[in-house]
Amino acid sequence: MICNFEDFCKELSQCGFSMGGENAKGIYSVISHDRTDRETGDSPIKWHTGDPQTDPWEWRMRVLEERDDIAYAKVFFRTSGYITKEWYPLFYSVRRKGETFEDAYESGTVSQTAKQIYEIVSGREIALHEIKQLGGFRREDNSKFDRALVELQMRMFITMCGRAQKVSQAGMAYGWNSTVFTTAENFWEKRGIVLPESDPEESFEKIRAQIVKLNPDAEQKKIIKFIKG
User: Fold this and answer.
1) Nearest to 131 by CA among 152, 103, 107
2) Total structural domains in the chain?
3) What is the tens place of the pLDDT at every residue in 55-105?
4) Nearest partner of 153 among 69, 75, 100, judged by Cα
5) Shared domain check, 81 and 61
6) Residues of the domain holding 188
7) Are residues 62 and 110 in the same domain?
């Protein structure tokens, strides 16, 4: 049973990947509803309490800030998920197929808005509010901006790397935390890992086999969508 952050990281390291919430989406989630005390029916895991040990909402940032072996972003079914350093290159291989962002844009598989965002993020770590400011995105652009941001994460061109507050002219932090993004390559290079080139088909089969191991009842259509994005 997952009782705290350390349990979660240990389990995730063994599994390799997981949906970000309790809903397994037909694939697998480390944080699932069935992880309860069998005697009491209760779970020590409580969402949105702010407790860094038992609140999974806090864990998504803790893995980025405290560990060097776990990535978290909107990578599965256009929603959040975790991938460890051992498995990330395999998903990266399947999603990218050796393409650079320029290759993808020239082939027409990413949007103009995604290009604007990627060019701002490339080569740095930058908060969401700064991306909007530098890109000149307005409130009426929110819908296409959000779609493009998810698109870039799903294709593994960018990923989350932490959080930051806005800073006033006097240098004082204020307001809610904002998610910080960087390129997938920069995220792992800062953790001492260069993403290797792998065969997409072999990578797909290795991930598929692990999914079936974690969830023998997983449907083939969902497996394909989970892996390919």
Assistant:
1) 152
2) 2
3) 999 999 999 999 999 999 999 999 999 999 999 999 999 999 999 999 999
4) 75
5) yes
6) 99-195
7) no
